Amino acid sequence: MSIFNSLRDRLSKTRNNLVNRIKETISGKASIDSNTLEQIEEILISSDVGYYLSNKIIENVRTKMLNTKDRTSDKIIFDVVKSELKKIFDNNSTSRVSESNNQAKPYIILVIGVNGAGKTTTIGKLAYNYKEQGKKVLIAASDTFRAAASEQLEIWSERAKADIVISEKSVDPSAVAYEAIEKAHKEKYDVLLIDTAGRLHTKSYLMDELVKLNRIITKKLNRAPDETLLVLDGNSGQNAVVQSDEFSKTALITGLVITKLDGTAKGGIVFQIFEKQKIPVKYIGVGEDITDLQPFNAEEFISAIVDIN
Amino acid sequence: MFEDLALKLESALKKVRGQGKLTENNISDTLREIRRILLDADVNFKVAKDFIEDVKTKALGKEVLSSITPGQLITKIIYDELVHVLGGNQSEIKINGSGITTILISGLQGSGKTTFSAKLAKKLKDNQRRSLLVAADIQRPAAVKQLQMLGEQINIPVFSLEEKDALKVVKNSIEHANENNFNTVIIDTAGRLHVDEDMMAEIEHIKNYVLPTETLFVVDAMTGQDAVNSARIFNERLNFDGIVLTKLDGDARGGAALSIRSIVGKPIKFISNGEKLNQLETFYPERLASRILGKGDVISLVEKVQENFEEIEADRLEEKIRKNEFDFEDFLKQIKAIKKMGSLSSLVGMLPGLGSQVKNMKVDDNALVKTEAIINSMTYQERKKPKILNGNRRMRIARGSGTSIQEVNRLLKQFSEMQKMMSQFSKKGFGGPMLKNYKFN
Ligand SMILES: Nc1nc2c(ncn2[C@@H]2O[C@H](COP(=O)(O)OP(=O)(O)OP(=O)(O)O)[C@@H](O)[C@H]2O)c(=O)[nH]1
Ligand SMILES: Nc1nc2c(ncn2[C@@H]2O[C@H](COP(=O)(O)OP(=O)(O)OP(=O)(O)O)[C@@H](O)[C@H]2O)c(=O)[nH]1
Ligand SMILES: [Mg+2]
Ligand SMILES: [Mg+2]
User: Fold this and answer.
1) CATH no. for residue A192?
2) What's the complex ipTM?
3) Residues with CB under 6 A from ligand 1
4) Are residues A243 and A128 in the same domain?
5) This prediction's pTM
6) What CATH number is associated with residue A21?
7) By the 8 A CB rule, do A270 and A243 touch?
């Protein structure tokens, strides 16, 4: 390289630095190397965090980085990304504490979600968890629609050694729930888990059915279900935000369950749901075995997204 | 609020002169917007990037017709390319002329394999084929029972065995089909994750044993960014023949289909859009392309604009506006041109980025009808020289058009204001200014 070239190079670097500094002063944001920015964007978007939120996070990161001297270290930058992600959860953790009373008996958990998300499997796993804690557990087969839904649930109840209410006569999900609540009261169950049929939120008659189910449970109990869990497929993309919006119209959702995180999908969609709806994640599903349900841990979850290596 | 709408309408319809060709500059905003749209539709990050880069390379330097903007043209090119990528080498499933046709169904957990297997059997039955459904999912609780119940609904026999080895079930089922004169075997398998080595090996063995006529990969339309990984690995292991996109009866935009299509290059063969067994459709790339790009139907706008606003007419009009000779005769032509493109509200609804605003806004198509009636009741002379419209003439026009004198007066007032505005608009400004100043209510 000629002296002239290298001089020009150095000059242009100085110039760029100057330009950057002016830009930073005006915008109040750090200029970060465009490769790094793209890398952050890719990590976030590829985890289904979504375009809007990813960019918002990046802007926040740049604001934070303004007073950081060393912006060449990826480690420092990615730590800021993590703390920004963490902040989303922190900001919201207080807003929707489950209204449930842990002492309620029977403690009633309603499980809802779109088709094939993992509701029935999650109920099996939850039943097992509660049994492990020494609780008396009952399951209600309120999915009266899908082929072999109750047979599937019955197998799970056997695996969990929990009891189950399957109505032979009724095709009405509310009637099954009603019967199960009566039984739970009478026979002093600690926990009642209610499975429902998968439904797409675009089908109003199915959403109405859920409203009715919720109403009947509430009436029978004199209180809302202690938990209403919305089950989301960890593979799902931006539609999960719409799902949480729409299902929220049928019942007060107290928590999310993100399933199938044993694959390579990251479940980043929950950040947007958190931001918008403030619904906490309660559990994650990490496999098809009865023990494959874990309590949600924000830090681990975020690390799984950001620490690619 | 209407002002804002009219502005957008104006800029969309305005001819962009001096932008004869597509350049990096005049399409960059649109491309950025398209990228956002693709990402919101769950198209994979890398796929979206490559796709846009690709289209850009092909499009740079293209001539822009003077009646549309570079942004509109590039949007149309994107749409066409999307249709092309989604639909290329589209094909029906293969059916063997003689012997047994075997169809292997694969995919992630809960994607809709079992439901689709039954739907396909029903469809083939309608085509006079004798299908046997095979319950090779020995993992999921009551999977066999589920398939049996579905088979019962459509009167298709289901083969199953009390067996812990899926391959063995499949082997036996083929024998059974041979002995019992079935000409089609549809094998429903357990859902599996692409990173589950044991399960992937299992289905690979099944594939290698059966050598299916057709192997299909079933994918949920709601799938996000990771679709590329699962599809790539399933394809590496099974080299499947086609894709089935399920749950399209929801409102997911289905961008995953573009990701998968670009990554594995296999055709989408079926659309599953409901839980009922007759809810199976063939795939139309145009529909999915529109769905991915969203509701603002940019494409038909572009086409309609092209059709209707003939260049010569435009030039003539421009000339008249420049000379401040725009009269009711021209106004009437404009209204007719707008009507030819559909109602004003539908025209407005087609503009990109306006969708949600328009929903909450009433554009009164009736006002346009009234205006037309009023102008129609004028004589040719009156239209050319609105100044001669005295009280008597106005009364006559009101009666003739079934409107009130107030309505006629209001139109005349708006028209003269419009003329004033136009004279200030010495250049260009075709379509835009008059719509902007014309109050539709
Ligand atoms: N790998 C994995 N698979 C899961 C997980 N949770 C559920 N599944 C599988 O996903 C599929 C669907 O699960 P279900 O529990 O039947 O889902 P659902 O929401 O009850 O489905 P519908 O009632 O049909 O709407 C099954 O094959 C489950 O084994 C998980 O955490 N990891
Ligand atoms: N709305 C809608 N639901 C569907 C469609 N296809 C399947 N489903 C539902 O999605 C859920 C899962 O469908 P299955 O056919 O059991 O899926 P699968 O892939 O066989 O699931 P596994 O065997 O557990 O991996 C069920 O509730 C089906 O009724 C569809 O096109 N639209
Ligand atoms: Mg279920
Ligand atoms: Mg199945």
Assistant:
1) 3.40.50.300
2) 0.91
3) A 113, 115-121, 143, 146, 149, 197-198, 231, 259-260, 262, 285-288, 292; B 109-110, 140, 191, 193
4) yes
5) 0.80
6) 1.20.120.140
7) no
